[in-house]
Amino acid sequence: MNNEKAPGLARRAVCNALSAWEYEGDVIETAALLTSELVTNAIRHAPASTCVIVRFAVLGGMFAIEVYDESPKTPARKTVGADSESGRGLALIEALTAESGGRCGTKPAGCGKWVFATLAVPRLPEHVIARELVGTRGVCLGSA
Fold first, then answer.
1. I need a labelling partner for 111 at 20 to 30 A (CA). Which of 43, 46, 57, 127 fits?
2. Neighbours of 122 (CB within 10 A)
3. Dihedral angle at the C-alpha atoms of 46, 28, 18, 10, nearest 10 degrees?
4. 127: left (phi over 0), alpha (psi -120 to 50) or beta
């Protein structure tokens, strides 16, 4: 698996699931952006990881996404210059989750960690709630 493809694959899985669960517009766009940022951060900041796992669900009016990597190092916000092309991912994740009434953080897991983000989303109609609103996408990155 090419590491550059991982964010797109994860983003597509989230967008397809949210569409199937009858979400649209801003919900899908925000979830896609969070997915891209979380997966990109996992690949960039845990380069020794051989596998990144993405899981997501809609529960109780919240969209939750978690991304696992094999580094125990906790993400830290960077101070970057106005002309910098990277380094704003964590600040963007924090802003998007806070704006929607969600939150973000980390949970240790074995030799690595889960980085998570939640977004408040509209409640779904009963016919959709009966569906399974959980998805998982594993992206094996191979050896570095």
1. 57
2. 10
3. -20
4. alpha
Contact at 8 Å (CB) between 68 and 53?
A: yes
Q: Which one, of 3, 18, 115, lies nearest residue 48 by Cα?
A: 3
pTM over 0.85: no
3-state secondary structure of 130: coil
The 10s digit of each residue's pLDDT in 43-59 is 887 777 777 889 998 88
Could you write out the DSSP letters of every residue in 44-89? Answer: HH-TT-SEEEEEEEEETTEEEEEEEES--PPP-PPP--TT-SSS-H
Give the pLDDT of residue 33: 93
Torsion of CA 115, 51, 7, 42, to 10 degrees: 40
Task: Give 74-123 pLDDT, tens digit per residue.
Answer: 776 666 655 655 556 788 888 889 998 999 999 988 888 999 999 999 88
32 in helix, strand or coil? helix
* Percent of the chain residues topping a pLDDT of 70: 77
Q: Which phi and psi (to 5°) does residue 39 adopt?
A: -70, -40
